[in-house]
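=== RUN LOG ===
request id: a7f3
mode: sequence -> structure
chains: 1
length: 136
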Amino acid sequence: MPDTDRARALRQKPTWAEKLVWSWLRDRRFSAYKFRRGHPVGIYFLDFYCREASLSIELDGGGHGFPGQQAHDAERTEFLASMGIKELRFWNSRLRQDKQAIRDTIFRELQARAPHPLPDYTRPMKPPDVGGKKRS
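=== RESULT ===
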């Protein structure tokens, strides 16, 4: 099982960005969606994957700015799309600057692909009954 061994090895040495995002996603913390990290799909290993929404989240460091790596990333995105998996990519530098925007983007995409009902505390409260009389 070389895929499992490689996935396990990748999980043993996460980057600072992977540690941060995993702290959001693990244990169904992100609106009860289940994520896996270092998940193998074909020849690729996804940083984070939600099967329910068929969504991959990838975090890119500076090495992804080189033309050869960009071509590889484009092939990977195309392969995942052929499998019905949407890929969200975020630069590590953007993660440092705008965590909430990235969290919002992930949440919107999850809700678009596999909606979960929002918890009651996020819904507006009903106004109290005025006058104490119920209408029939």
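=== NOTES ===
Residues 2-45+53-114 form a domain with the Endonuclease; Chain A fold (CATH 3.40.960).
Residues 52 and 114 are 7 Å apart (CA to CA).
=== END ===
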